[in-house]
């Protein structure tokens, strides 16, 4: 139904910036909220940022607020995560995710609310 493919990960020095992308496909993709999660080795997958299906609202995890910016382009079926002032603790595999419910009015942060997942892209921040 919805396929998600991340790209743009890599190695960056602390304090640097990186922009990762997610290409979404499927006839319902424009009707669902999209989000970024991340998972570091030995840790749980956690919410990073989300954007509503319309692109009008966004939400961020506490640890990235003010440093990361999520955006989406519904014409191109793309979602982006601009990451600035990167820290070593931002090192993780970053996953793009699609909400299981169409036209949800609010952004949710639990992994169980997302039915669609990409394969992930590695982001490594060196100190």
What report would you give on this structure?
- This protein is an all-beta fold and 127 residues long.
- It starts with a strand and ends with a strand.
- Strands 2, 4, 5, 6, 9, 10 and 11 form a seven-stranded mixed sheet that branches. A four-stranded antiparallel sheet has the order 1-3-8-7, with no helix packed on it.
- It contains no helices and eleven strands.
- The chain has strands spanning 3-7, 10-13, 18-25, 32-39, 46-51, 58-60, 68-73, 78-83, 92-102, 114-117, 121-126.
- The mean pLDDT is 97.
Kindly state the mean pLDDT as a whole number? Answer: 97
Structural class: mainly beta
Q: Count of helices? A: 0
Order of helices and strands: EEEEEEEEEEE
Radius of gyration: 13 Å
Total count of strands: 11
End-to-end separation in angstroms reads 40 Å
Which descriptor suits the 3D outline? globular
Low-confidence stretches: none
Main beta sheet: strand number and arrangement?
Answer: 7 strands, mixed
Q: Determine the strand fraction and express it as a percent band.
A: over 45%
Instruction: Bin the helical content.
Output: under 10%
